[in-house]
Every structure is written in structure tokens, then in C-alpha cells.
Amino acid sequence: MAPAPLAAWPWERMGNYKYLLYAPLVLEATWGRRQDDGLTHNICLQILLLTAARLGIYQAWQMLSRMLPLIAHLQIRPQGLSYRQVDREYHCDNPHLLQALLLYAGHKWLGLFEQASLWNARGLLITLLLHMGPAELLYYCLHRALHTKFFFTNYHKLHHESLTPEPSTAGSSTFLEQLGVAMVMGLVVVGSTLLGGSSLVNLYLYLLFFDFLRAYGHSSIEIMPLSVIRSVPLLRYILYTPSYHTLHHESQDSNFCLFMPLYDYLGNTLNPETEAFHAQIRHDSISERVPDFVFLLHAVDFTSALHVHFVFRAYTSHPYKANIFLLPWLPVAILVGSAMWLWGTVFKGWNYYLRYYHHQIWVVPRFGFMYFLPFAHRNINFLIEKAILKADRIGVKVFSLAALNKNEALNGGGKLFVMKHPNLRVRVCHGNTLTAAVIIREIPEHVTEVFLTGSTSKLGRAIALYLCRKGIRVLMLTTSRKRFEVIAAEAPSDVRGNLVQVTKHQAGKNCTTWILGKWLHYSEQMLAPPGTHFHQFVVPPVIQFRKDCSYGKLAAMRLPDDVRGLACCEYTLDRNVVHACHAGGVVHLLEGWTHHEVGALDVDRIDLVWKAALKHGLSPA
């Protein structure tokens, strides 16, 4: 079915090449600089700077709306985000491109801003009155028209598919709708110019404040205290709130105003639940929502730190991959990461968290390399312990440790905390039992021999013992005869011969199944025969040097289809997929197990945990 007229954007088929439409402005701005026109007279440069500032406002609000340490208790609908919404709103900057082109056209064809002063106090008052009067009324009428059957079905429905608005939702609409918004804004900008109030400062203030309020209303965090509204009742009709706008998205038959609910009141379209809903959200914010499950993760490196879900929403909705567009932001990540490291090391102070669907993910401010610095271990454990004690205090049921947070050399797989605090009500879980189960099930049934590195680690030991029981010969790479003998002694006597100690990577040159628990360099990978598959449980994953071999991802499980609230990928994993240790903690919670899963793995529980995961709808990734 063909789209309705003016529903599609003119540059829709261009994809990201649409940014080439800024080229005339860039060229003219550059030429103006060469002609030494001065900043205030270089209108194209001003339009570009203004557009960048406007996009920056949306990005700042977007980050704030997902910065859960600050706003988790203020969220209006915390479970509504999805990958589909992020994909649908990918081109949410289309309105800014349109308005930049319209400003450029107005400048070229109508001579707008040619005589604009830098500052005009009278013009600021004119701009304010034009917006509060005709502009707000015009938008109210246009918005109500968009909710009639024809216009809603063919145009406005797209915007309302986002039940939990985010700042980016404001730009998710059809071309016709944004022409209407541009007309409302143009009424103010052109009207102010015709009435002698044109100035660059006024233009900046109006458009930036317009975007600020649009992003604020779509943020889905109710930051407006109820006491302020009740102290100044008139404010309720002059300035809308995120809860006011959320009700519009849910009911679709009320609260149509742009920023000023006054016109809803006059038009008898003000939702009667507006004040009560606002009060409910603010009342619920008094007591923090307590999750049943916490997963404590960490950044791996500075670029992957930019993959956290509150930075770039579209980027984090796909598996992590180093990208050239991250380069300008890398110094920021290094600066922030260093500040976090300094704060945690010197002042021993900070941990923060991110929320996923029905549980929370807390993040320790550490990067991967820091876990391999012996002098940093004490402070890392201090932060992990602090997070566990907080979880215990507020009533969390299961606390799961990710990757390096349960490193054997760091805290014995979490055993340190359980021994230090024997009366913990929260169950500490490293989740490695399910990780072992996933790796084992990845191995084809016909395999009779595997080469295992990291063989004396928690996971390596459990995998070796399990496979040897199944009659598979395990070449265990370790230079420690004592540690090998301790593990071999745990194997039943009739299969103990399946465990073979090797001390060099050359021992795996005839084995096509390698299981990596330690990092493998280029020269070591080259020792594997062609056709080898590298299974791995090493963080970060090894670099894929071999074109004639295949590489498995980190052990992971796919979540059930009915899971809600996911909008970002977990490191390099696909959508709706989490690391097996993460899934292991969830299974621990869902099964109601009351033991701590710390320290050495119980090999006899591997099959039990695997069956429990499948029972709850998780599946191999």
C-alpha cells in the first residue's frame, strides 16, 4: 500500500547520505569565513551552529532520561522501551534537517536575518507573546486535527507507536506533521522579524528553548515537584509536564497542547486524571523500586564504555563494534573513566547502576585492564562489597557477578564476600555453572578430543571434569603439575585417563576443537590446524586472526520472547541475548535457590542448571 501524500520524507531513500543536504550551508559558511564576514553576519554558519546545539540538547536529555542513578525513581513507565522503538526513531533528527533547510531558504529567498541585530530585548518579548498566543493555539488546532481518523491513520499513528516516549520520540513523525510544526515555529520567527524584533540571540533562545521543552515533555521522567505546581496553580496551565504528555500518548484523546495546557483547558480536552497521575508518579518516587535481581558488570575498555545504554541509543541497540564515529568521543571516555578510577581508588566512593527489564544491572567504575593490576584489587573488591551490602540492605534476592568481577585472583569467584559476611540475605551468584553448560553443549557430539587453555580456572576445571566423564579426551594446558593433579583426583578413576596435562600450545596442533579460557596471541592461534573452532570464555574475546578457522562468541543465552524493557545489546551479543553468567543469575532467582553460587563449580549441577534455564524459556544463542 502506497504511503499517504507527504507522509514519507523527501530524503528517506538516502539513508545517512541525507546529511549531504547540509553541504550548501557548509560551503557557504566556509566561503563566508574566507570573505571575513564575521560570525554574526555569516548566517549559514549560525544555522549550522544552532542545529548542532539543538541536537546537543536532545542528546543531553536522552542521556538524562536513561541515567538511572539520577532518575530511576522518577520514571513514568520504566518497562516500555524496545528495540523496535529505537529502530523506528533512528531518523529522529529529520525535523532539524528540515528546519535548517527552511531557515537557509528563508535567508536566501526572503532575506531573513540580513538586518538582524545581535540582541533585541523588545524582540524577545514579541517572540514570547507570539508563541504563547497564536503559535500555541495553532499547534493545538493542528494536533487535534491529526487525531481525526484519516490523519491519525495515515500520519500521526507512527508517533504514537512509542508508548513510552523518549526525547528522540519528539522527532519521530511524518514529513507532513513536521511541516506543520515548522509552520508554527515559522510564525514566531517570521512574525518577530516583521515586527522589528529580529536578532540572532532571540533566534537561538527561542529554538533552543523550544527543543528543551520538547525533549523535557517526551523524557518520561517526572522531574516537576508536585509542591511547585500546588504552590503556583497557574503554572499548571502555562507549562506542561512529562506526565501530562505521557497521558496524551496513552489516551490519545486529550492533552493536545504543545507546551501550554491552557488551550486544553479552554477546549475541554484536558485529561481529568492529569493532576492525580502527576501526584501518583511523584508519590511513587519517594520509595525506590527494589529489584529482585542485580547483575554487576564492568566496562571492558574505553570504546566499549561508550556502548552503555545511556550514551548513544541507536549505537547501543546493536552489538558492540569499534566504530570510527567513536573517535571524537574517545577523549571524553578516557577523561570520565580516569576520573571514575581516581574517585574509586583515592576516595573509594562510587558505584552506579543501569536497569534492564525486571531487574537491575549495576556497574562498577572499572575498566578491564584495571583488574590485572594487583594494587587495584583491594579497591575493586571494596566497591563490589559495597554494592553487595547495599543490595542486601534494600532487599535484593540474587546478586550476580559478571566476568572479571568474579575473577579467581580477585575474590575467589565471589567466595571472599560470602565468607566475610556469612549472614547475607542476598544470594551471591557468579553464574558460571550455566556458562559451563553452554560451552559444553556447543561442542559437537562427534568430538573425541579438545584442547583446553585456562584449564585450572573455575570454568576450565568444571569443563574438563564434565567432558572427561563423557569419554572426551581433554588436553589441559597448564604448567602446574600440582594443580593438574588436584583436578584429576576429582575425576572418577575409570575416566581419569581422559585428562592429559600439556605444557605448550603445540600440543593442540592436531586438535580441531580448542576451548579458550586464556587469551591467545597470533603465534599461538597459528598452531591450531585449519578448520579449528575456537570456543571461548575469555574476556575480552580473542582477536580473530585466522581466516581458515571459526570463532565462537562468549557463552550466551537468548531471553524469552515475552521479555520487555530491553533496548540495548549486552557488549558484543545480539539483541535479546545475554551472557550465560547473567542468565545463570536470573535462573538462580527464578528457581528460588537459596544457596550462594560462589567459588568452585559443582560439576553435578551443570545439567540441573541447564534444564532449569530451558524450563524458563531461555535458549542457546
From TrEMBL:
<dbReference type="GO" id="GO:0008610">
    <property type="term" value="P:lipid biosynthetic process"/>
</dbReference>
<feature type="transmembrane region" description="Helical">
    <location>
        <begin position="356"/>
        <end position="376"/>
    </location>
</feature>
<protein>
    <submittedName>
        <fullName>Uncharacterized protein</fullName>
    </submittedName>
</protein>
<comment type="similarity">
    <text>Belongs to the sterol desaturase family.</text>
</comment>
<dbReference type="InterPro" id="IPR036291">
    <property type="entry name" value="NAD(P)-bd_dom_sf"/>
</dbReference>
<dbReference type="GO" id="GO:0016020">
    <property type="term" value="C:membrane"/>
</dbReference>
<keyword id="KW-0812">Transmembrane</keyword>
<feature type="domain" description="Very-long-chain aldehyde decarbonylase CER1-like C-terminal">
    <location>
        <begin position="450"/>
        <end position="620"/>
    </location>
</feature>
<feature type="transmembrane region" description="Helical">
    <location>
        <begin position="324"/>
        <end position="344"/>
    </location>
</feature>
<dbReference type="GO" id="GO:0016491">
    <property type="term" value="F:oxidoreductase activity"/>
</dbReference>
<dbReference type="GO" id="GO:0005506">
    <property type="term" value="F:iron ion binding"/>
</dbReference>
<dbReference type="InterPro" id="IPR050307">
    <property type="entry name" value="Sterol_Desaturase_Related"/>
</dbReference>
<feature type="domain" description="Fatty acid hydroxylase">
    <location>
        <begin position="130"/>
        <end position="269"/>
    </location>
</feature>
<keyword id="KW-1133">Transmembrane helix</keyword>
<dbReference type="InterPro" id="IPR006694">
    <property type="entry name" value="Fatty_acid_hydroxylase"/>
</dbReference>
<dbReference type="InterPro" id="IPR021940">
    <property type="entry name" value="CER1-like_C"/>
</dbReference>
<keyword id="KW-0472">Membrane</keyword>
<feature type="transmembrane region" description="Helical">
    <location>
        <begin position="181"/>
        <end position="207"/>
    </location>
</feature>
<dbReference type="Pfam" id="PF04116">
    <property type="entry name" value="FA_hydroxylase"/>
</dbReference>
<dbReference type="Pfam" id="PF12076">
    <property type="entry name" value="CER1-like_C"/>
</dbReference>
